[in-house]
């Protein structure tokens, strides 16, 4: 599907259910989800163990992690404009001269033994205030500035992150601190399916404005659309505001019913425009 999408650049970031893209996790415990055919709603990676043996069912196949990752990083994928992003920063230049920097991370707070997880008390997005023995130093913290777009699997705390039932915010507090430091133009994430939507946040007041889309227009256009470009009625104030998008396509029942988001956004422009795509 991504290969056929008519877009110049297609960025891919893994998430907690992409167990075969987290080699350390899959080797350590994630393979049990395949071996024991563990359901995606199970409380742990080995919860499906009872499915094997009692009825003489065959064990599931243990996948080759590197072969699967190669599907996303192959020459064929690259030629199709697909870029699989590990945690960290990359800068891209499009054929129209737009040049922008993206910070990406597949990691989310630990929940039910899924992939790309970290302890909620661990800060992997901000540099430590001091470095001493025993202090965790994140390998790829969010830079202070220069990031135009953040693309993370999970949400920051308090922004499009409330779950059904308790209505509690379950986003990452440390990720919010990092976004507040970097103040990107756009932050896209998913993970909390029931919190699908978009919001603008004004940093000086912390006020959030939920983006409202006309349902009939969204159905007709087959996407939810918002325009924060310089030509819009309300242009994004870069450095003062960030547009947040929870782009979860699936609902809390894991049904693909949420329309994708389309955002018109001003990006930095490279003075010496290239004639084609210039990507790492």
How far apart are the termini? 22 Å
As laid out across the biggest beta sheet, the strand order is 3-4-7-8-12-9-10
Largest sheet at a glance? 7 strands, mixed
The overall average pLDDT, rounded, is 90
Percent range for β-strand residues: 15-25%
Uncertain segments = 52-57
Write down the secondary-structure element order. Answer: EHHHEEEEEEHEEEHEEE
Please indicate the count of domains.
2
Please tell me what the overall shape is. globular
Q: What value does the Rg take, in angstroms? A: 20 Å
Number of helices: 5
Give me the count of strands.
Answer: 13
Structural class: alpha/beta
User: How much helical structure, as a percent, in the residues?
Assistant: 10-25%
Organism: Aspergillus arachidicola
InterPro entries: Metallo-depent_PP-like, UPF0046_metallophosphoest
Protein name: Ser/Thr protein phosphatase family protein
Describe the fold and architecture:
- It comes from Aspergillus arachidicola.
- This is Ser/Thr protein phosphatase family protein.
- This protein has helices spanning 23-35, 65-73, 75-79, 173-182, 215-221, and strands spanning 10-12, 82-84, 88-93, 99-105, 108-109, 117-118, 149-152, 186-189, 197-202, 207-210, 224-227, 241-246, 261-264.
- The protein has 280 residues and is α/β, with parallel strands linked by helices.
- The protein has 2 domains: 1-83, no CATH class; 85-270, no CATH class.
């Amino acid at each position: 599907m991504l290969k056929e999408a008519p877009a110049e650049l297609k960025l891919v970031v893994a998430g907690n259910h992409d167990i075969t893209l987290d080699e350390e996790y899959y080797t350590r415990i994630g393979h049990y989800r395949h071996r024991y055919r563990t359901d995606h709603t199970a409380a742990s990676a080995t919860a499906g163990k009872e499915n094997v043996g009692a009825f003489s069912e065959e064990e599931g196949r243990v996948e080759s992690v590197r072969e699967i990752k190669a599907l996303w990083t192959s020459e064929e994928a690259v030629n199709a404009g697909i870029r699989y992003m590990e945690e960290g920063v990359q800068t891209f230049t499009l054929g129209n001269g737009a040049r922008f920097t993206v910070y990406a991370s597949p990691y989310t707070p630990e929940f039910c033994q899924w992939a790309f997880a970290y302890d909620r008390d661990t800060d992997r997005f901000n540099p430590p205030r001091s470095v001493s023995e025993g202090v965790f130093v994140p390998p790829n913290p969010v830079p202070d500035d220069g990031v135009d777009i953040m693309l993370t699997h999970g949400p920051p705390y308090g922004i499009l992150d409330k779950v059904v039932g308790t209505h509690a915010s379950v986003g990452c507090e440390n990720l919010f601190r990092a976004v507040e430091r970097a103040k990107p133009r756009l932050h896209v994430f998913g993970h909390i399916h029931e919190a699908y939507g978009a919001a603008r946040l004004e940093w000086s007041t912390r006020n959030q404005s939920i983006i409202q889309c006309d349902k009939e227009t969204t159905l007709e256009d087959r996407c939810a659309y918002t325009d924060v470009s310089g030509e819009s009625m309300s242009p994004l104030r870069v450095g003062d505001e960030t547009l947040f998008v929870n782009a979860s396509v699936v609902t809390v029942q894991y049904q693909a019913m949420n329309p994708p988001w389309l955002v018109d956004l001003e990006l930095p422009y490279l003075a010496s425009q290239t004639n084609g795509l210039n990507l790492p």
